[in-house]
Structure formats: structure tokens, C-alpha cells
Write a structure and sequence with these properties.
Blueprint lengths: L1 H8 L5 H33 L15 H6 L2 H11 L3 E7 L2 E6 L2 H8 L7 H4 L3 H4 L8 H11 L5 H4 L2 H19 L6 E2 L1 H16 L10 H22 L6 H4 L3 H31 L2 H7 L4 H10 L7 H31 L2 H15 L14 H13 L5 E5 L4 E2 L5 E2 L4 E5 H5 L40 H18 E5 L7 E3 L3 E3 L4 E6 L2
Helix pairs in contact: 10-11, 10-21, 11-17, 12-14, 14-17, 16-17, 17-19, 17-21
Subcellular location: Endoplasmic reticulum membrane
Family: Belongs to the cytochrome P450 family.
GO molecular function: heme binding; iron ion binding; oxidoreductase activity, acting on paired donors, with incorporation or reduction of molecular oxygen, reduced flavin or flavoprotein as one donor, and incorporation of one atom of oxygen
Length: 510
């Protein structure tokens, strides 16, 4: 008996024995992990058995189809074939259900499911945990704190600041007309919306359309848009420890540092300005507080637990969302009007009649351009600035048609697919502003360019005002036409972008 035991133990006493044990343990762990992944995949398959989907590879999911065809085009094919929702496999044990039905949207957006940490966490090194990424009670507290920054009394004087920024951009376009027959507008509009945001939300009156720092920040934002999306689509980049070692991971880190330098510099400057103005309560009594004022006041209040990290996260979040989504919207609106000259001309005539030959636009004018507003909304339907948002179900859900999903499931609310769903919008690819004519009826959750429910865009009124100002003043100065040789290709990133830019021909109006 003792001899047999010793005969087993003896070979394990040296290095080869330790390696043997390690190999066996490694194999056991691998088998356990394989079994875990297999059981999880079986759970996913059972959960979505009521939701048909295109054939997928057991390991690579729908990646092959996504590589063969533009993602948005493929998505629209699924919308026509599979009612209400469709499972999309990212890889073997990772999948989400894509939602594009208004009843489904309404049900989810009226709940309080958190945003999925699985994909949204990739934004955290850049944006931190501000309104976009927060969940639960902390999100509610921050939302309530920042809501006063978007009261109409505060938004009213912003119209003049918006108009000034737009005119600077249009003057630049006029100078560039002689240099090039076609102009890529997204970059110029991004500078303009950043300039507007800095003036309105952060009381910074510098000309950010000519500053090198602003251009560096916009380049960082452009890079991060692409890098974050690329990481979401590549399962091998999901682990932080691996991603940091890749060229893309290092590039992401550098872009985050550039973006943070911009916001840190602005916060530091604003704090110094407030100290010069004296007692904070005196400042409050003199003027309305802007977005950054509210954050800084909250930080010094004894009732607030807003840390420096929290403050920068909110600034980083609004700095990005406040300019990039609006830049996307305005760019696509101008493209839609360029490709539909009859609607462009009707908008122009409406604005000329409203302003009586002038170019000075005010808050009161914004509600007096119904046809232009209809065209803006129709362009937002075709090109929603945020293509989709994600949720992780905090409890089971049963949809109106009886199909259900369990707790813990990931769903993607695709606003792009919703807006192009032929069951919701007849002839969805046709630009038809009459869909938004006064008195027209539609499902409450058929049109969601600013999302919906309690987590809708806090700055949606600010954004709509800026769109109206930019479109009105642009149409007064220029006639727009598309570049037939460079047709934009919509592509989903954090915001809706074009793979090849948005190029327009501009003709100065006499």
C-alpha cells in the first residue's frame, strides 16, 4: 500500500511533476470554461427561440454578413424580414436583440433598465461616468441637478450666440468657394457646434473655429468615435489588459488624454473666473447660471458630493454630446435639403419672408418656420444622430405580441432601423416632410431622434434651436447641391457619420 502511494507521489516531486499537475489543472479549467460557455449559449438560444434571425456561425456569429455588406444596409434587410426585433450574434456566446418596433421601444423606454456595462464601459476612459453612463439614483441626482441649465429662460439668449458662430462658419465657406468646387462640411460644422457650445454652456467667448486647441480636440473626438466602435466590434479587444497592449489601445489612450486636456483647461479657467467674480451667491444673483456654473456651484455646496472626477465626467460627456450629435444632425439635414432642391427652396422662401430680407434671427422666430421644421424632422428621421442605444434588462419583459426575454438580456434599440421600418413609415427611404405636417398623427415612439422616456436627451431643445438657426442662416447665404461623385455613406459610430465625409456644392446667393 505505502509503496504504491510513494510510486505515485515520487514522480510529482520534481519540476516535470509540477508541470504535469499544472497541465491537468489547466485542462480541467478549460473544460469547465467550455462547459460554462456552452450552457450560456444554450440559455441564449432558448431565450430567443421565439425571435427568428438570419443564419449565424456558431463561433463568429453574424460577423461574416457584416463584413460582406454595409451594416446599416444589412440591418434594413433584417427589418423587412423579421418583425419587431431580431437577434444579432456578435460571436459564440455574445448576442443582443435589435429592437425596431415602436411598441417594443415604448415598453423598454418607460422602464428603468440600466445601460449595458458590456459595451458602454468602452466609453468610460474617455467620458467617465456622467449622465450618459450613469445608472440608478446617482444618474437621477445628476439629471435633476443639470436640468435647470436647459430652462427656456437660459436658452433664449443663446440664439444670438448660435447665430454668431454660424455666420463665422458661413464667412469661411464663402472664402473657400473659389478654392474648391465641392466642400466637405462635417468638419466645419463640428468646429461651429463646438464654438457654440463653448459660448453657451461654458461662457467661453473665444473664437474656437480658428483655435488650434479646438481642432486638436475635434480630431481626438473623431478618432475616439472610430476607436470605440471598432473595439465594440472586435471581441479580442474587449479585455482591457489585451487592448492596452495593441496599437489601437495606445492610440485610444492618447486621444483620451488630448480630450481631457481640453476639458481640464476649460474647468481650470472657469474656476479662476468665478473666483474673480467674488462671492458665488452674488454671481447667482447677477445672471443665469450656465451648465458649468451649475456643476461648480454644486461642487462647493455642502449638500453635494460631486467630486472632481464626477465634474470632469459631466463636462466631458456634455462637451462631446453637445457638439458632435448636433454636428451630425446639421450636416445630414443640409445634405437632405441639397438632394431635394424643391424642399430647400420652400424653406428658403419661408425664412426670407419671416426675416423680411434680413439675417437677424431671434428666439421668437424659431417657432415661426413650420415648413423648415418639418424638413429638419424628416432629415432627422432618415439620419438620426444617435443610431442606437443599449439596455440590459433588469427584470423579465413580455412584449405586446406575447414574446418575452429574461432578466439580464441585452437589447439594442435601433433608432435608425425604427425610422426606416416600412411597417412604421410607408416608403421610408423617401424624403417626405409632410409626415410631420401640423395635425399629422403617428405612434408616440415612432420618431426618436433624441431617444425617449426619462433618459431622453437633456439638451434636445438646445439642439433643435441650433439646427434651426444653422439651417435658416445657411439657406439665406447659399444654394446647396450634392456632389454626385462623392455620395455620403452613412455608417454607425457613437453618432451617425459618413464613411467618406459629406460633400456639397455651394453657390453664393446674390
Amino acid at each position: 500500500m505505502s509503496v504504491s502511494v510513494l510510486s505515485v507521489i515520487r514522480p510529482l516531486g520534481g519540476v516535470p511533476g509540477i508541470l504535469q499537475v499544472a497541465s491537468v489543472l489547466g485542462l480541467v479549467l478549460l473544460l469547465l470554461k467550455t462547459a460554462q460557455l456552452y450552457l450560456h449559449r444554450q440559455w441564449l438560444l432558448r431565450a430567443v427561440q421565439e425571435f427568428p434571425s438570419p443564419p449565424s456561425h456558431w463561433l463568429f456569429g453574424h460577423r461574416h454578413e457584416l463584413q460582406k455588406e454595409e451594416q446599416l444596409k444589412l440591418l434594413l434587410k433584417w427589418v423587412e424580414k423579421f418583425p419587431c426585433a431580431c437577434p444579432r450574434w456578435l460571436w459564440g456566446t455574445e448576442m443582443e436583440v435589435v429592437i425596431y418596433d415602436p411598441d417594443y421601444m415604448k415598453l423598454i423606454l418607460t422602464r428603468s433598465d440600466p445601460k449595458s456595462d458590456g459595451s458602454y464601459r468602452f466609453l468610460a476612459p474617455w467620458l467617465g461616468y456622467g449622465l450618459l453612463l450613469l445608472n440608478g439614483q446617482t444618474w437621477f441626482q445628476h439629471r435633476r441637478m443639470l436640468t435647470p441649465a436647459f430652462h427656456y429662460d437660459i436658452l433664449k439668449p443663446y440664439v444670438g450666440l448660435m447665430a454668431d458662430s454660424v455666420q463665422v462658419m458661413l464667412n469661411k465657406w464663402e472664402e473657400l468657394l473659389s478654392q474648391n468646387s465641392s466642400l466637405e462640411i462635417f468638419g466645419h460644422i463640428s468646429l461651429m457646434t463646438l464654438d457654440t457650445l463653448m459660448k453657451c454652456a461654458f461662457s467661453d467667448q473665444a473664437n474656437h473655429q480658428t483655435e488650434r486647441n479646438s481642432q486638436s480636440y475635434l480630431q481626438a473626438v473623431w478618432d475616439l468615435n472610430n476607436l470605440v466602435f471598432s473595439r465594440m466590434m472586435n471581441v479580442f479587444y474587449w479585455k482591457d489588459i489585451i487592448y492596452r497592449l495593441t496599437p489601437e489601445g495606445r492610440w485610444n489612450h492618447q486621444a483620451c488624454q488630448l480630450a481631457h486636456q481640453h476639458t481640464d483647461r476649460m474647468i481650470k479657467l472657469r474656476k479662476a473666473q468665478l473666483q474673480e467674480e467674488g462671492n458665488l451667491e452674488k454671481v447667482r444673483s447677477k445672471r443665469h447660471l450656465d451648465f458649468l456654473d451649475i456643476l461648480l456651484f454644486a461642487q462647493v455646496s455642502n449638500r453635494s458630493s460631486l467630486s472632481d472626477k464626477d465634474l470632469r465626467a459631466e463636462v466631458d460627456t456634455f462637451m462631446f454630446e453637445g457638439h458632435d450629435t448636433t454636428a451630425s444632425s446639421i450636416s445630414w439635414i443640409l445634405y437632405a435639403l441639397a438632394t431635394h432642391p424643391e424642399h430647400q427652396q420652400k424653406c428658403r422662401e419661408e425664412i426670407q419672408n419671416l426675416l423680411r430680407g434680413g439675417v437677424f434671427i431671434t428666439w421668437d422666430h424659431l417657432d415661426q418656420m413650420p415648413y423648415t421644421t418639418m424638413c429638419i424632422k424628416e432629415a432627422l428621421r432618415l439620419y438620426p444622430p444617435v443610431p442606437s442605444v443599449g439596455r440590459e434588462l433588469s427584470k423579465p419583459i413580455t412584449f405586446p405580441d406575447g414574446r418575452s426575454l429574461p432578466k439580464g438580456f441585452l437589447v439594442m434599440l435601433s433608432f435608425y432601423a425604427l425610422h426606416h421600418n416600412p411597417k412604421v413609415w410607408p416608403n421610408p427611404e423617401v424624403f417626405d416632410p409632410s409626415r410631420f405636417a401640423p395635425g399629422s398623427s403617428r405612434h408616440s415612439h415612432a420618431f426618436l431622434p433624441f431617444s425617449g422616456g426619462s433618459r431622453n436627451c437633456i439638451g434636445k431643445q438646445f439642439a433643435m434651436n441650433e439646427m434651426k438657426v444653422a439651417v435658416a442662416l445657411t439657406l439665406l447665404r447659399f444654394e446647396l447641391a450634392p456632389d454626385p461623385f462623392r455620395v455620403p455613406v452613412p455608417t454607425p459610430r457613437i453618432v451617425l457619420m459618413s464613411k467618406n465625409g459629406i460633400h456639397l456644392h455651394l453657390k453664393k446667393l446674390l
